[in-house]
């Protein structure tokens, strides 16, 4: 499921990077973050003031998420071997948005572009009872995606981020509607607190590979 929105009262971002100019200007003026050329495009460095702001936001989101009975998890930043992304079905549809693989000891490894497969491995690490479902896993996962240089701008399109809450709800098929409502409620509550409104959101779901391919940037 993909969700999109914008801050309450904010105009729609103009083409050509108006939002990039805004976030970049704020980052410099308030001494929050920067994008050093020595590191590379789309990779932000958060300064001490920005770190304080990030920590406050993360603490709030963590508290709200745990209130919804979700549990914290953590997965490696250097992502799994190629076969895991092939098994999960991500590689055929997201390869162009992922960094090239690293070859080590005869295997290909990827920088983590999404943590869906790793959360599935947590679920599959032992036998599960239906009484444990729904299982709600979340983390402030670090992900790295190869965004084209022409679309990288500000904090809205970056190549590396570890500020996003990545969550998955694993449930029985019959509980799908209830799980979707719970996800929407949690997301809208957190977003409304920070000035975003669901009146400008769009929501979509993908249940088969054709839909995933059509909405490849909004899933995962």
Write the layout of secondary structure elements.
Elements: E1 2-4, H1 18-29, E2 33-34, E3 45-46, H2 48-67, E4 71-72, E5 78-81, H3 82-88, H4 91-94, E6 102-104, E7 107-111, H5 116-124, E8 135-140, E9 143-144, E10 160-161, E11 165-170, H6 176-193, E12 202-204, H7 209-214
Parallel strand pairs: 4-8
Antiparallel strand pairs: 1-12, 2-3, 5-7, 6-7, 8-11, 9-10
Structural features, described:
It contains 7 helices and 12 strands. Strand 6 and strand 7 form a beta hairpin. With 220 residues, the chain is of the alpha+beta class.
Q: Low-confidence parts, pLDDT < 50 over ≥5 residues?
A: 1-18, 212-220
Strand residues, percent: 15-25%
Order of helices and strands: EHEEHEEHHEEHEEEEHEH
Helix/strand class: alpha+beta
What's the helix count? Answer: 7
Side-by-side strand order of the widest sheet: 4-8-11
Q: Helix coverage percent of residues?
A: 25-40%
Which geometry do the CA atoms define?
Answer: globular
Largest sheet composition: 3 strands, mixed
Average pLDDT level: 78
Question: How many beta-strand elements?
Answer: 12
User: Kindly, what is the distance between the CA atoms of the first and last residues, rounded to a whole number of angstroms?
Assistant: 8 Å
Question: Cα-atom Rg, whole angstroms?
Answer: 18 Å
């Amino acid at each position: 499921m993909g969700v999109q929105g914008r801050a309450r009262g904010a105009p729609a971002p103009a083409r050509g990077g108006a939002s990039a100019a805004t976030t970049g200007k704020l980052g410099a003026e308030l001494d929050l973050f920067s994008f050093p050329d020595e590191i590379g495009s789309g990779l932000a460095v958060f300064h001490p003031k920005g770190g304080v702001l990030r920590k406050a936001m993360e603490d709030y989101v963590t508290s709200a998420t745990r209130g919804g009975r979700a549990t914290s998890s953590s997965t490696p930043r250097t992502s799994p071997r190629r076969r895991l992304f092939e098994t999960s079905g991500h590689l055929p549809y997201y390869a162009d948005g992922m960094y090239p693989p690293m070859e080590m000891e005869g295997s290909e490894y990827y920088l983590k572009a999404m943590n869906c497969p790793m959360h599935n491995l947590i679920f599959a690490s032992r036998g599960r009872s239906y009484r444990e479902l729904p299982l709600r896993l979340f983390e402030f996962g670090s992900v790295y995606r190869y965004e084209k240089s022409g679309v990288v701008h500000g904090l809205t399109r970056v190549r590396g981020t570890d500020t996003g809450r990545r969550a998955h709800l694993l449930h029985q098929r019959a509980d799908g509607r209830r799980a979707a409502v719970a996800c929407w409620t949690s997301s809208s509550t957190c977003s409304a607190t920070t000035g975003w409104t669901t009146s400008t959101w769009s929501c979509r779901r993908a249940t088969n590979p054709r839909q995933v391919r059509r909405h490849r940037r909004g899933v995962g």
